[in-house]
Amino acid sequence: MEKIMINDLIDFRRELHMHPEVSGNEFQTQGRIISFLKTLGIEGKEIGGTGVFVVFDSGNEGKTIMLRSDHDALPIQEINSFEHQSIYEGVSHKCGHDGHTAIMCGVAKHFNENPIEKGKIILMFQPAEENGEGAKAILVDEQFEFQPDLVFALHNLPGYPLNKVVYKEGNFTPAVKSIIVKLDGKTAHAAEPELGINPAATISELIAMFDEVNQPDLERDDFALTTPIYIHMGELSYGVSAGHGEIHYTLRTWSSEVMNELTERILNRIDDIAAKHQISTSISWTEEFDSNKNDPKAVDYVSQAISANSLDSEMREWPFKWGEDFGLFTQKFPGAMFGIGSGENCPALHNPDYDFPDEIIETGIKMFTSIAQKAINE
Questions:
Q1: Which CATH class, in words, describes the domain spanning 3-172+291-377?
Q2: What pLDDT is recorded for position 236?
Q3: Torsion-angle region of residue 343: left (phi > 0), alpha (psi -120 to 50) or beta?
């Protein structure tokens, strides 16, 4: 892609970086994407609340290939001082979704100037990836009337050399979800705790239980990582024996099947522990991500694109441990996610000093366009 267009994409990426919006609130971001696409002569349509999609339809029979990017930011205070730093307190692009969006705009320009001869290509600019709600919102939108034959997404990867493509067969990211357990006992005077039901013993046993089901060995198919996130009990009042508390954990497994088994096991144990201590429980779940399952044929197209562009690459042995909302798409349609190195010295994702490296925008465009062209023409 010509240098002048890459510079335009960098400028647009930095504009998005300056104006970040958290999951579900990307209204200005949505408008900026649609406006930028319009400057390229491309019509972007709203979907999924704050998402955008573009359709390139050849008018002839063929496969439907969907390429997906994301554009929400995080509730993190940026500490960078460059010119394109976030103008909003406590909100910033610390996962590189601004860069993913710029890449997809470059892909849109490519296919607008190089029309496909058969099938359809759908470019999906997805909102709300960080909280696991964006893919759901798109799939239930009546405008999502497609049945993609293959779906693809990428993510930038700090710690890997710039432009190195990282891919994997099988699960690329795990199933992830967070559990909130609220505990109701009975408040009493601290001098007469026997007249109440304090949740402390229940919380203690629950912590031990979560530790017991933890299986952090990456080599095991039943890998299960249980991470304590938040624990609260009572109030800061020394004359009162607490009657209420809550405990939050995040669960991670390589597959959705193992997650279902782990969930059932944990819920049964919670019931038993709470009943033993005469505690009532209220359980809810939040930020749920399906395992991102890479289809072998889709991975082959990724491999072919790497070769076609003479890129350095690595086949990863284990899935990454972070959740990814694209997993909902790969549970429903064959597809694959891959990564592009952001630099070995690049700050980690979600760190307050992270910034997406503009040097990998062109590589992302080349990978996406090569994958789509190979998949749709085979």
A1: alpha beta
A2: 95
A3: left
357, 365, 359: which is closest to 309 by C-alpha? Answer: 365
| Signed CA dihedral, 357, 342, 360, 324: sign only | negative
**Element spanning 17, H or E:** helix 3-18
Token code pair at residue 284: 């809810």
* Beta-carbon-side half-sphere exposure of residue 239 (alpha carbons within 13 Å): 0
* C-alpha–C-alpha distance, residues 367 and 304, integer Å: 9
Are 68 and 342 within 8 A, CB to CB?
Answer: no
> Which tokens is 276 given?
């033993």
Residues 75 and 130: beta-carbon distance below 8 Å: no
Q: pLDDT tens digits, residue range 251-275?
A: 999 999 999 999 999 999 999 999 9
Q: Residue 140: in which H helix or E strand, if any?
A: helix 134-140
Instruction: List, in sequence order, every residue forming a beta bridge with 123; answer none if it has no partner.
Output: 54, 67
List the domain boundaries for the chain. Answer: 3-172+291-377, 175-289
Cα 215 to Cα 204, 209, 210, 212, 328, distances in angstroms: 19, 12, 10, 8, 24
The correct answer on CATH 3.50.50.60 for the domain covering 175-289 is: no
pLDDT higher than threshold 80 for residue 1: no
